[in-house]
Amino acid sequence: ARDTKAVGATMENEYPVMTGVGEMRMEKSSMPEIGPDDVLVKMSKVGICGSDLSMVYKGKVGDVMMKPPLGLGHEGAGVVFKCGSAVKHLKIGDRVTIEPGGPCRMCDFCKSGKYNNCPDACFHSANGPMPTPGMMARYYKHKAELCFKLPDNVSQEEGAVIEPLAVGIWACKRSDVTIGSTILICGAGPIGLVCLIS
Fold this sequence. Notes:
This protein is an alpha+beta fold. Helix content is 22%, strand content 27%. It has six helices and ten strands. A hairpin with a 2-residue loop joins strand 4 and strand 5 (64-65). Helix 5 crosses helix 6. The longest helix is centred in the last third of the chain and has 13 residues, at 162-174. It starts with a helix and ends with a helix.
């Protein structure tokens, strides 16, 4: 096994960057420096969301135009490579899934625990400015409080789809769907399918 502590400072990070509609390139940078509340995750599995494809091929997500350069990937799981000094719930080697948001922590939504509604949240990778790459990077820096340890019976592949699964679970919860409910799911893509299994 490789000693990640010893080699981390000399390694480079590598990641795809969307440079324009239909245009991508691989870039390298020095390893991200982490703060006391951050972790550096060596990415293992990353999903390709429909929004990633829309950004690359259309230059927008929904009606929102994207401003390249942009990193890609916001559905991911990996292994903790480095921990900030204040991180207590994770350690090097822990397998984690990552919640991709970056809430401001200052607005009323954030202060009331509804940080998912933060109007100033940075959703990686849709508006994460470079040189902050998305989760398709080999190494990804994120707030430790938004990284969750995976149980031993959950694979890295399953960990990478927890973010879209959460969308389906929340849609069903918000719609008051219960066992025996009759519903119509419009769309058989990944989100429609996770609604079905939720």
